[in-house]
Structure formats: C-alpha cells, structure tokens
Automatic annotation (TrEMBL):
One of its GO terms (biological process) is lipid A biosynthetic process. This is UDP-2,3-diacylglucosamine hydrolase. Residues 6-204 form the Calcineurin-like phosphoesterase domain. It holds the Pfam family Metallophos. InterPro entries: Calcineurin-like_PHP, LpxH-like, Metallo-depent_PP-like. The keyword Metal-binding applies.
Length: 269
C-alpha cells in the first residue's frame, strides 16, 4: 500500500461503458493519500441523460471514495463539464466529500497549485457547446471499439493499451488543441498568483513547465488510466495503472447515500 501527500484523478466517466472502473478500483485499493482530489467528470451526466448505464463496479468506485473520506482522507470534488450538475452543490459535502468550484493545493515545498477541471477555459465548451456534444458521441463510439479491443488483448495475456488515445494523438488538430489548452491553463494559473495548475479535461496526463509555470494534468480513467500524485517527499509524479495488481476489489453491496443518489438523479434529469 502506497501512501501519498495527495492524489488527483479526473475524467473517470462513471455511467459509461468506456469507464475502466475495475482498474480504478484496483488503484484505489493499493493507494492512499492525506488529500484526494476528484478533478471533474467523475460521473458522466451527458451519457446518463441518453441512456442509464450503472454496473456494480461503478457503484463500488463511489463507495470506495466515500469510505476513504469516512476513514479520514480529505476528499475534495471539483466538478467538470460532464458532471456540471454537481456545480449547484458548491460549498456542500456529499458523505464527507467536499464540493468546491476550485481549490489551491500547497505542496511540501510551498508551491501553490490551482486545481480546476479546465473546461471553463476550453473555447469549444464556451462558444460551441453543441460541437462538444457531437464530439462526445463520436468519442464514445471510439471508446466502445477500444473496450472490445482491450478485452481481446487481455485474453491474449497483454496489458491494457488505448487504441482511442493512439488515434487521437495522430490527429494534427488534436495535438494543436492540446498544446493551446495547456498554455491557457498555465497563463490562468499565473493570473491567480499560483506556481502551477492541476487539471484534467483533455485526457492527456502531463507534468511539464510552461513559461515558468508548472502544468500538471492527471489524465483519465477511460484511456490512459493515470493519476497524479505528490509523494511524501514532495515529488509530483504521474502514476500509470494499466494492470490489475491484486484480486478483484470486493466491496459490500451498499446502496447510495442520499446525497450521491441525488447527484445521480440530477445527472440523468
């Protein structure tokens, strides 16, 4: 069991068939932290509005996070665009999980990191949201193919490999979009007087310096299967989890707590 000062995850997309919940459950089983940041798109309200999909593994992820909060981990939830319905609950707590608009994390060496999902600084989301919905539909289809592609790989004894991420990174426009987004987020962090930013949204894990600012993206749990961590020594690292280390994570059959159930209902409605 590894114990970190902080763990950041985002873009889990619970409620979709592309969500790699079993890998995330295994990660949660083997990793603890003083602070756990959920950096948006944890529950995919967009997809749930179209069709309800909620297998037991997705319920288990929610319960595992709630259990961490009950046992003393400070769990902070910063909603994104796919779970934007949770933004109406800023300042409230869901079973000891705090819901906030954004937050500042201070590293061991005193650096201030602005934590936000990132969609509010995405031009497509702000000025052509309809295009984002179209893109989401196409993206979901690619993830559908990716799911069965990796089922075949597992049967062949191979590790998880993201076909969808590979295709996305071969497209010149997508690469340009990612670069623009990264620079915008670094600029916004500077405007807030911070030393860097931690975000999600674009499903590309990264730690690098941009114009003197630290840019960190924790990736996702539909393609890259990654989390950002701060070690007890203050080092920031990307953890890649394309494997199941232990036995399948077993959690008791627990119904949703009222606040979580309300969030699911809001996502669907």
């Amino acid at each position: 069991m590894m114990h970190y000062r902080a763990i950041w995850i985002s873009d889990v997309h619970l409620g979709t068939s592309g969500c790699q919940a079993n890998y995330l459950l295994d990660f949660l089983k083997h990793n603890e932290a003083d602070k756990f940041y959920l950096v948006g798109d944890i529950i995919d309200g967009w997809r749930l509005k179209k069709s309800f999909y909620w297998p037991q593994a997705h319920n288990d992820v929610v319960q595992k996070l709630l259990r961490k909060a009950r046992k003393g981990t400070e769990v902070i939830y910063v909603p994104g665009n796919h779970d934007e319905s949770a933004r109406q609950f800023f300042g409230m707590s869901f079973g000891d999980v705090k819901v906030v608009e954004e937050v500042i994390h201070t590293t061991l060496d005193g650096k201030k990191l602005w934590v936000t999902h990132g969609d509010l600084f995405d031009g497509v989301m702000q000025y052509a949201k309809w295009l984002a919905y179209v893109g989401d539909t196409l993206y979901s289809f690619i993830l559908y193919i990716n799911r069965y592609f990796n089922m075949l790989r597992v049967k062949m004894g191979l590790q998880y490999w993201s076909l969808s991420q590979y295709l996305k990174h071969q497209v010149k426009n997508a690469v340009s979009y990612i670069a623009d987004f990264e620079h915008i987020m670094a600029r916004e962090a500077r405007l807030r007087g911070c030393d860097g930013v931690v975000c999600g949204h674009i499903h590309k894990a990264e730690i690098r310096e941009i114009d003197g600012l630290l840019y960190c993206n924790d990736g996702d749990w539909v393609e890259s299967l990654t989390a950002l961590v701060e070690t007890q020594n203050g080092e920031l690292k990307i953890i890649h989890w394309p494997h199941i280390k232990g036995e399948p994570v077993e959690t008791p059959e627990i119904t949703f707590q009222p606040a979580i159930e309300l969030l699911i209902k809001e996502a669907v409605l």
